[in-house]
Design a protein that fits this description.
Blueprint: H1 2-67, H2 69-75, H3 83-100, H4 110-132, H5 139-152, H6 156-171
Length: about 170
């Protein structure tokens, strides 16, 4: 009986070794195929979303260019001499531009969106501060004050555009 057990064990050990080896290779092959499929899926997804993301960055760059104080002031002329109405007109133009591009945030990183929001809000704050200045009596003086401010400081939109460019460079 001991001999029969030994014979069965001798026949079973090679079978177990073959089974364990087959299981190992099958498991490795399955993992490798899953990884390959995931990589292919990721590449396909990236090929489809990259153009959309680039378009969103382009639109946000255009938004920042349009709300840059120099461009904004040359495009939006005061309707009257009232500085308060001109302030409202400038801010309204910025808000309309922003609302037009609001959906682009889904394609941008959170940091990038925060930089754009900060740039927009800082530009609005600059307009409000100019309107509250003692030197500004009418809309024309307000435009001059804002243009002089641009000569002395870097516009917040410039920093945001630089951030956009850097982030687009990382997409490749």
């Amino acid at each position: 009986m001991n001999a029969d057990f030994t014979n069965i064990l001798i026949m079973l050990v090679p079978s177990l070794i073959v089974a364990v080896t087959a299981f190992y290779f099958f498991n490795s092959y399955t993992r490798s195929e899953n990884l390959r499929r995931d990589v292919e899926l990721h590449l396909k997804h990236a090929q489809q979303t990259l153009p959309l993301r680039l378009q969103a960055y382009e639109r946000m760059a255009l938004f920042l260019e349009r709300i840059a104080l120099g461009n904004l002031l040359s495009r939006v002329k005061p309707n009257s001499g009232d500085k308060d109405s001109y302030e409202a007109q400038l801010i309204s133009t910025i808000e309309q531009e922003f609302e037009h591009n609001l959906t682009q945030q889904i394609y941008l990183s959170q940091n990038c969106w925060n930089v754009i929001m900060t740039s927009k809000n800082t530009t609005i704050q600059m307009i409000r501060q100019a309107n509250m200045s003692d030197k500004v009596e009418n809309s024309q003086k307000m435009r001059e004050h804002l243009l002089n401010t641009l000569l002395e400081t870097t516009p917040p939109t410039d920093a945001a555009i630089l951030f956009l460019k850097n982030e687009v460079g990382q997409l490749w």
